[in-house]
């Protein structure tokens, strides 16, 4: 029979950590530095010794860097002892298990702990994929079992997910949450479902990236570069899978799929193939990439490493560029080309709109001068290279025409019909679409071989990425021309085929959509989800911050395109997003989206 909980606040001074691998050692370091007495338990005496040595080394580095004094280091190490038997946890107030992700192993640990610890001791599992409820249900004290999910490396990562089951007592959650705050972490309260918040969103994205690579849609290097440069992520998805461990990722996804039956969580076959071949990532020396040695972070060339840029087909000469459009993207692209020394014709539907777009560029250049990024002379020369025009007839002599008009297929098709008549033979015609089929623009011309996608990211002067989108009709020399132009304007080009979302949007928007579904299901709050992805996933913005910046109407349009293209039920836009758009709550631009904003 369970011992009833008292109203007295639970004190967590003595803590046992079971499992002294990388995560257990990191958690132990956090605890001893925060003044807790810790017993680290591992059945492998050699592993316990390695954990102690690793802790001694990491705290010594902290002293060298001025983060700890030698006295503080000595005190911290004195608070730690190691053991190889669970009986060492007998007087612990809290036990945190971080053993391998196996129900059988974890159940065994919990069963043994039931016979060892005091009735009031809290038992926490560090799982990121298994059911906390299932583990709690078999415990003698299910009300005292919860999840405590740290992120790797535990000393550096701020996020801790505090996972309640339907059986967990509120006092237990409160005690562990207070502990996380005292450790200098940012606790996020979540319910019991595979992956919780951060991994629940992150692993679906990683899985899609693996499937994209497996389909040979884009190279591993281009997929990773696209997500780093297009979304500001610290690592690309395939490099991150190698860091996490491909076998670990497969385990998490298996658990998520078993719960959700969402195809987005069904592990990509390549994850199984690599895992079963022992190619589990950095720890084995090879995964999606090849590494200098097992455990090394240094990538070395292998047969899949692409040849140096510039080899192969020769492109066409480009001296002048036409940019069609008068909005922010058009003016940003015109600025990029003019800064790189190209003569630019900036054409809009009227002379006034074109002049206004050039004036916007002048303002942007002035800001760069004020910030010391550009000299006044260079800014003036850049602006002089831009000729505004009220008609696309001004594109008669350009070598490259880039359209940046409304994201409407019929509007773009009409524009390409006009460019086909105006532009000289051999001119390259490019669309900046982010979601529409490039081939539809190409088929509107008599020269589809000259049409290609050049998807710049906003703001174009600052963002380094360009997705270069070939259709099945695009000529090799046109592709080579655009790659060379990207080098000249100092942008990083990634190659992808002509399908909805290309690389970035195809991976980004399902992740954003899944975040909305979490809120719909009352699983977690907007603030907790945003915090989880910033602190646990390394994202520069949380998903709801980003949705409000992008615009909910824009996001919904892209999600609808992805759903139509791939016919996957998991890609259907979340009803909450549709409702907000229908209500005119489009994000920052309207003052309200997922959050409210002060009117300017």
UniProtKB/TrEMBL annotation:
Domain called 3-hydroxyacyl-CoA dehydrogenase C-terminal: residue spans: 195-291, 501-597
Superkingdom: Bacteria
Entry keyword annotation includes Oxidoreductase: yes
Statement: the UniProt record of this protein carries the keyword Secreted: no
InterPro entries: 3-OHacyl-CoA_DH_NAD-bd (IPR006176), 3HC_DH_C (IPR006108), 6-PGluconate_DH-like_C_sf (IPR008927), 6PGD_dom2 (IPR013328), NAD(P)-bd_dom_sf (IPR036291)
Start and end residues of each 3-hydroxyacyl-CoA dehydrogenase NAD binding domain: 14-192, 321-498
Biological or metabolic pathway of the protein: Lipid metabolism; butanoate metabolism
Entry keyword set: Oxidoreductase
Segments crossing the lipid bilayer: none
One Pfam family per UniProt: 3HCDH
Family: Belongs to the 3-hydroxyacyl-CoA dehydrogenase family.
Name of this chain's protein: 3-hydroxybutyryl-CoA dehydrogenase
